[in-house]
Structure formats: structure tokens, C-alpha cells
Amino acid sequence: MIFEIKKAAKNISYLVNESAISLSSTDYEDYFNREKILKDTSVEFRGGRGQTLLYKKDGLELVLRHYKRGGLIGKLIKDKFCLFENHCHRAFDEFYLLAELLKRNLPVPRPIIAKEQRFGLCLVQDIVVERFIGFDDLSYVIAKRALTDEEYESIGLCVKRFFDANVYHTDLNIRNILINNESKVSVIDFDKCFLLNNLSDKLKHSMIERLLRSFHKEISKNTVFFSEIGFEKLKIASLS
User: Fold this and answer.
1) Residues 137, 171, 189, 191: which is the catalytic one?
2) What is the pLDDT of residues 154-182, one digit of tens each?
3) Between the CA atoms of 52, 54, 58 and 60, what dihedral angle is there, to the nearest 10 degrees?
4) How far apart are CA 220 and CA 214, in angstroms?
5) Is domain 136-239 in CATH 2.40.50.1020, yes or no?
6) Is the pTM of this model over 0.70?
7) Could you point out which of 122, 146, 227, 239 has its C-alpha 20 to 30 Å from the C-alpha of 217?
8) Are strands 122-130 and 60-66 parallel, antiparallel or unpaired?
């Protein structure tokens, strides 16, 4: 994968996957122009803190995500990240991490292009990644049907691959794990996630507990299919 930072204007920078984007294409803003993208009636919306768009461009199935803050500070400063904060380059950091995880043959989206726009001492950011076709997130699946024991185990084995690679996913939940009809599993949304020198058992257990809480949270809001026995198989597979 070949990628490079491109300066488009005094306050705008793009991190470009030149293996995916034609070198002759310099209109990088088209990847982020929501008004233009939304003219295509096939565009899909997804929830989350930042409005996520699923769209097609130049033969690629893409996901555009805008970075927004959560919590109390997000009510005051919705989408600006200050340069003096730790991990302020959220989009570029996620892009680089995805590139590294792909090198390690982990099932994550291919990064296509990321954008930083500077306003004084703050950054507004977006990222575009390639979409997994034929996959649904677990929240969608369990609203329709029960996961099989084999699927729970496949999810656990996928999570184990990330554990073995010392990947700390800070928000492992049912919306960030995708599965297809062949029980293939992938993981998405690596904002504020890290590669560590050694992923401790404590962090592994905390990630699994976070995933379990996301199942329980969904149960409290909607009618869904969930098996504690199945989740135990997931847990055992991930920590084996």
C-alpha cells in the first residue's frame, strides 16, 4: 500500500492511498462532498456519532465517516479536536493503523483517503474506507435472528486474532463487528485504537466485557436474539 500526505490548501491536508486512488485524480474533495454524494439515490445512512454515508465512487464501495466528539464536551465542541490534545490527528492515526493491520492480514477495512481541515488550533476530520460487501453488523443480525454457536465461536476466533496481534480496540461492540453468511468476521471503526507492545489479559477481558455490555444494552432497548451460552463460547475462543 502506497500512501502520501497531499496539501490541497493552506488549511487542508489529505492522506491518500495511492494504490486505491488514481494518481491522475486530484479532486480529493469529491470523496468528502456530502452534498454531491447525496445526489445519488443509492447512498445509505448509518448511525453513530458522526453521520456515516455508504456510497459508490470510481467502482469502489465506500464508507465516509465524520469525526465527532462524545460526552459532555461534545455538546459544546461537536467536531473540533485541538492540536494540544493527545491523539488529535484522529483520521490520520486511524488510516495508518488500518494500513498496518492489513499488512498483518487482519480483517479490517482498507483505508482510501483521510482529511484534516485546520481552523486555528483545531482540526475537523473525515475518513473514507472501503466497505465490506455482504456483511452486516451484529446489532442488525441479532435483530433478525439468533447467532449460531458456530458464529459465536467464529467471532471469538476473529477477536483472538486481534488479541494475538496486540491490538487494543477501545470500543469493541456489536456495531463494530461484522459477519457474513459464511461466518466470516471483520472488525471496523478503529478511532482511538492502538497497537501495544503487549496486550495484557486485563485489557483483553475489558474488551470482551465491553462487547458483552453492548449485547445487554441492545437487549434493554430492542427485541433481539441473544444467547449467554453462545457468548461464553465467544469468550472462550477469544481468550484461548
Assistant:
1) 171
2) 999 999 999 999 999 999 999 999 999 99
3) 110
4) 10
5) no
6) yes
7) 239
8) antiparallel
